[in-house]
Every structure is written in structure tokens, then in C-alpha cells.
Amino acid sequence: MKKIEAYLKACILIVLISGLCCFAAGAESQDWPQFRGSGGQGVAENADPPLHWGPEKNIVWKQTIPDKGWSGPIVYKGSVYITTARTDEDHNPRSLRLIRLDAASGKVLWDREALTWSDTYARHAKNSHASPTPIAENDRIYVYFGHMGSACLDEHGTVLWRQQELTYNSRHGNGGSQVLVDDKLIFICDGMEESFVVAIHKDTGKIAWKTDQTNANQVASFSTPCLIEENGQKQLVCAGSGFVRSYNPDDGRQIWYLNYGKGYSVISRPVYGLGLVFVLSGFSDQTLYAIRPDGTGDVTDTHVAWKTKEDVPRTSSILLVDGMLFYVSDTGTATCMDAATGTVHWQEKIGGTHSASPVYADGRIYCTAEDGKVVVLKAGTTFEKLAENDLDELTLASPAIVDKALFFRTESHLYRIEEK
Question: Does the model's pTM come out above 0.70?
């Protein structure tokens, strides 16, 4: 009997240990399937990327990426996906492409044409023809190229559908990424002559709904929607020229809006937490708003918890971590503030010009400047610079973090950085 009891205890112990190991492996293995990660807010849970790297240190691989693009890399089921645009001699886009690489080795597995484009259009010098970041789900990769269209490819690179009906004058080219909500892909088309938010069916690319919106001053914006849930109701928060609006993602019905007037060319993506939506109003009158999202109709005068103009960014998105907001201005001033009140904990110059959005993992904030320098800060109420590393190449794309690895896109290369 004692032998049987001992045997049963041993079996139970083995099962428990196995279960804990499986749980730990599952907790550590997390994809980065869209712009700013799985939660869309630049936070990598359970990740432990390196603090230091250099030409001969912690560079697992460095792969040349053909053609041009500033979309961020996504990491999904052991692969990295990134978009790029092949242009003619006059730098007009002709072939809009998706590239799949093996995440472990950096080997290019395939390079496929998702869409073609024959017209010409102007774009900002800091923009590209492939700036929106793809989304991955259930072995489907959804790519978006702004006014030039959308497409869906499978894991083998086969194009399943294309959508090129939704054209508009974007002025500076494509910028904002799409968001996936249930069975719909939703994106903001905030152009010069017209502005609308649109949802397309993820299985077919056909239009599910389209909601027109007023564009203040007829100046374009390039933001990415933020999906939140308030009082059991999903909301899609969309920042654009002159206004930030909340929509019902099921049918495109407007829930509330806030008028910030002069703001335009909005690029950053809103973030959500502590019962507040944090929105940047873009250029001209750049302001950070903390908004209570439980209103209806015009909430301009009723639902602003606090706001600040304190060195807020015009380009990159902000981070919300442990009740603190972190952001880096375009001119390289980093700020930490209390998210509930807007009280500044610290504000320090870290240098460089910043377009990429900072990301968070393991108590650290990774801030990528345009010249390729990456400053690592401690995520705390006291300023502490932990490290400075250099990719030594122009970069405007926001990085990805998965487990112990960082993935950076520069002008010509894609990096996997991990402690070796």
C-alpha cells in the first residue's frame, strides 16, 4: 500500500511539474502580431530583452530588406512579417509587398506582391509607401497600404483577397495602421478632401460599414484606432484632424467626440487605462488629453480629466505602465507623469529626433531615435538611464519585442537582438 501511495504521489508531482512548465512556457512565448504589440499599447508582457548590444554583441542576425518601407515588424508563430514597396525610377510605388522571414535565423522564406499601384502621389520625406504595420491572426496576414488598398495573404504567401476601392487624397502618403475587431478590419482614412472610418470583412475584404466624419481645416491625419471596452461596451477611439471620436465597431455609429480644434496631422495611437483614454492632438497645437470615455455626444467640455502641452510628442505614441505615462517628444525630451492626474514625475533630455514609438518590457523603456540610437530608461518615478545602444542606421519604425528578443527595422535591414 505504501508503495502504491508513493507511486501515486510521484505521478501527481510529475503532472504538477509538467503543468507548471507548460504554463511557464506559454506565459513566456508571446507574439507581437500588430502595431505596438498584442495589446496595441507597446507593452510586452513576460518579455526579457537585452539591455546592451553592439556590432559584436547580442546581434543574433541582421538581414537586408529589399526596397523601401517604414512599417514595423510583426512576429507571429516563429516568423517575422514586414511590408515593403518596390518603386520605379521616379520613386512612385509599383509593387506593394509582404516579406516573411524565419524568426530564428533571419532567412527570407518568401517575398510576395500583395498589391500593384499605377498612379503617382506625393508623400512626406519621412514617410514611405509601406508605412502601416501588418496584422496576423489564424495564419492570415492582413496588409494595408493606406489609399492604395488592403490585402490578405496566407502563411504560404498566397493572396486570398484584395481591396482597392477606398481611395482618397492622403496628402503625405499612407501612415496609420489597421485594427482587427472580431470579424472586421477597421482603419481611418483622414484625407484632404474627405475623411471617414471604414470597416471591411476580414474574410472577403468587402466593406462592412463606412462612417463619414468632419475633417477640421481639411488637413490629413495618420493615426491608428484604439480598441477599448467601457462599461461592457466596445469602443473604437479614432484620433484625427480637429477631433477624436469614439465609434461602435459593430456598425460604425458614433458614441462620443471631443473637439480639439487646431490639431492636425495626428500620427500617434491613443492608449487606454485607469478608466481614461490618452490622446495626442498632433501638430499645430500639440496637447495630451486624458478623456473619460463614458460619455455620449459632444464631451469637449465635460469629460476631460486633465490635459497638458508639456513637451508632448507630435509623432510617436505614448506608453502607460503601472499608472505612469511615458513619452518622448520629437526633439528628444523624455517625460514620466502620473496617469491619473497629469503630475510630472520627471522630464529629461535624452537626445536625438524621435519618430518611432517607445516600447516597454521588464521594467525598461526602449526609446529609438531616428539616427538609430536606442536609449533604455528605467520605468519608474525617478529618472534613470540604463543604457545607450546604436544601430548606426536611420530608423523610423517602431520595434517589436518577443520573449528575450528585440526586432528593429532600419532603412535597409531587419535585426534580431538577443542576449547570447
Answer: yes
